[in-house]
Amino acid sequence: MERVIAVYREAEIRAALDMPSLIDAVERAFVAYSNGDAELPSVIHLDVPESRGEIHVKAGHLHGAAHYTVKVASGFYAADPPAIDGVVLAFDARDGSPSALLLDNGAITDLRTGAAGGVAARWLAPEVVERVGVIGTGLQARYQLDALAAIRGFASVVVWGRNRDRAARCVEDLLERPGLPDRATYAVADSVEAAAREADVVITCTASDHPLVEASWLAPVAHVTAVGSDGRGKQELHLEILREADVVACDSRPQCARLGELQHAPDVLERAVELGELAASTASGRTDATGRTVCDLTGVGVQDVAAAALVLERGSASARLER
User: Fold this and answer.
1) C-alpha 269, offset from chain centre
2) Model confidence over 122-173: pLDDT tens digits?
3) What is the pLDDT of residues 53-70, one digit of tens each?
4) pLDDT beyond 90 at 101
5) Angstrom distances, CA of residue 232 to CA of 25, 98, 217, 250, 270
6) Which residues are within 8 A (CB) of 314 and not within 5 positions of it... i.e. 6 or more apart?
7) What span, in angstroms and rounded, lies between the C-alpha atoms of 158 and 127?
8) Helix 107-124 with 19-34: angle, nearest 10 deg
9) CA 106, CA 100: separation in Å to the nearest integer?
10) Which CATH topology does 117-300 take?
11) In the chain, what are the domain boundaries?
12) Interior angle at CA 312, CA 311 and CA 316, nearest 5
């Protein structure tokens, strides 16, 4: 029997995935996961140490959805700038036959990771965000701000990176980036502390294997979105941040216990809530009385399912492969 597989290129994928719609789609996927209406196997992690390469294989299925997906995403951090790539395979959930090949060059990972930060901001960030501190200068420094702009907006951003030239390039990019607040200002911070102090929202998006941000630097009602810890041994936050937070949220409790910031604070795990629980109102996020909040994001396969579904719904495949 002849089968037709749709092929989507990066430009078509990006055109189909606007951030506000993707935030909503990822939030629905989180709800399905937390409600038990999704399948999420463990992440396969492969290292290429000589090139500082990390490869993640993630899969997921939302019950009742037309497709399930398997994604291979890579980041090679010895390159300047880091080389990010990937591919997503969508399969028909009725019979397992391949439906689409999404040659996204890592775009789906970038966008859906940003969207998860947007979901976190929706439920955990202060209503008024003036200052944002960004720790890290890679792509997520951009995408997390895209998502925050879609949910809250902000007035100023201070960026810190180990390499000051990269931090300056990041600021230059943000000044020209469409979709960010028109009057926002952007600057390079001299230290992690300078970026984090007085910030309403702190975003950490590094590959650090030791804590960078200290609790004493954070504002009383600050929100922290921790993106970088997605593998064993990685850590961006001092433990006091998790232990002292009024609300600790995550994308997946079991996955964050293995790979996220929560791997270093098992004593906090029992009170951690999932973003899907916040969105379904089965757990509480920020309230008028809430102080600091933290969200630990490791990236789960249902986010890729949500993003791929939008592409298949909205996109027009550039070519079709018959077999």
Assistant:
1) 20
2) 999 999 999 999 999 999 999 999 999 999 999 999 999 999 999 999 999 9
3) 999 999 999 999 999 999
4) yes
5) 28, 32, 26, 16, 19
6) 16
7) 19
8) 70
9) 16
10) Rossmann fold (3.40.50)
11) 4-108+302-322, 117-300
12) 85
CATH T-level topology, domain 4-108+302-322: ornithine cyclodeaminase, domain 1 (3.30.1780)
E-strand ranges in 93-144 read 98-103, 131-135
Task: Name 98's bridge partners.
Answer: 91
Inter-CA distances, 268 with 42, 49, 67, 253, 265, Å: 21, 31, 35, 11, 6
All residues at 6 or more sequence positions from 52 whose CB lies less than 8 Å from its CB, including other chains: 76, 77, 78
Tokens of 81: 């700038």
Residues whose CB is less than 8 angstroms from the CB of residue 248 and which lie 6 or more positions away in sequence, other chains included: 242, 262, 268, 271, 272, 273, 293, 294, 295, 296
Place of tokens 């936050």: 237
Three-state DSSP state, 155: coil
Position 138, amino acid: G
- Give backbone dihedrals phi and psi of 20, rounded to 5 degrees, phi first: -60, -45
Residue written as tokens 């037709």?
Answer: 4
Structure tokens at 260: 């996220």
Triad 260, 171, 217: Cα angle to 5°: 50
Q: Is the pLDDT of residue 46 over 60?
A: yes
